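step=encode ok
step=design start
structure_in=
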C-alpha cells in the first residue's frame, strides 16, 4: 500500500512536534516535509508532492490562504487542511475559496486531526464542529480586488519589511514594489502603511 504523504506547515516548533507525533503514530502515514513559512510550504509541496498539506492559516512571509492558493495551482493533487485559532465562518469561506478541503481549530487538532486527514485522503471534506460546512465560498470584496502579487506585498509590508526587502523576497525591482504599494493603497482607499497594517490584521493576513 502506498504511504499517505503529509506536509506540515506551521511556524511554531511545538505545534509541528505535536502534529508530527500524531501523524507518525498512524500506520501508513509519513511526513514528507515540514515548513516554517508559507513560501517554504509552497516550495516543498512542489518538490515532495504530498497527498495532504496540514497548513497553519497564520504563516509568516506568505499566509496560509495565499500559500493554499499557490499549492492548489502548483500541486493540484494535494488536499489542504487549514489549522486556525479562530472559529469563523468568514475564514471558512475564504479557505474554501482558496481551495482548502478542510478547516479545523488548533484547539481541536488533537482529537480531530486524524479524522480530518482520513476524510481528505478519501476525497471528502472536513470542517471543525460549530462551523457550517455550507458557508458559501467567496473572498471579502476588498481583498478580492487585490491581485495575488499585491496580497503578497500587503503581508510582507504589514510584517515590517522595507521595499528593498520585499523586492528581494519576491524577485522584483524596488520600483515595481513601490508601484504595487501605491496601487494597493489606492485600491483599498488607505493612506499609510499604518492603515495597511490595520487592514492586514482585520483580514487575518497577519496576526496582531
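sequence_out=
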Amino acid at each position: 500500500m502506498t504511504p499517505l504523504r503529509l506536509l506540515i506547515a506551521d511556524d511554531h516548533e511545538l505545534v509541528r512536534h505535536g502534529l508530527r507525533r500524531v501523524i507518525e503514530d498512524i500506520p501508513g502515514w509519513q511526513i514528507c516535509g515540514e515548513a516554517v513559512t508559507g513560501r517554504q510550504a509552497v516550495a516543498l509541496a512542489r518538490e515532495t508532492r504530498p497527498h495532504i498539506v496540514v497548513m497553519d492559516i497564520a504563516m509568516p512571509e506568505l499566509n496560509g490562504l495565499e500559500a493554499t492558493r499557490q499549492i492548489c495551482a502548483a500541486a493540484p493533487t494535494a488536499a489542504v487542511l487549514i489549522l486556525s485559532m479562530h472559529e469563523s465562518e468568514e475564514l471558512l469561506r475564504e479557505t474554501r475559496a482558496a481551495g482548502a478541503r478542510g478547516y479545523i481549530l488548533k484547539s481541536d487538532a488533537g482529537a480531530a486531526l486524524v479524522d480530518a486527514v482520513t476524510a481528505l485522503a478519501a476525497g471528502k471534506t472536513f470542517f471543525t464542529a460549530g462551523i457550517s460546512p455550507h458557508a458559501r465560498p467567496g473572498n471579502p470584496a476588498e481583498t478580492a480586488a487585490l491581485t495575488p502579487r499585491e496580497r503578497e506585498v500587503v503581508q510582507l509590508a504589514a510584517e515590517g519589511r522595507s521595499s528593498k526587502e520585499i523586492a528581494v523576497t519576491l524577485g522584483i525591482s524596488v520600483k515595481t514594489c513601490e508601484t504595487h504599494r501605491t496601487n494597493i493603497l489606492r485600491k483599498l482607499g488607505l493612506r499609510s502603511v499604518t492603515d495597511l497594517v490595520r487592514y492586514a490584521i482585520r483580514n487575518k493576513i497577519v496576526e496582531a
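step=design ok
step=annotate ok -> The longest strand covers residues 29-35.
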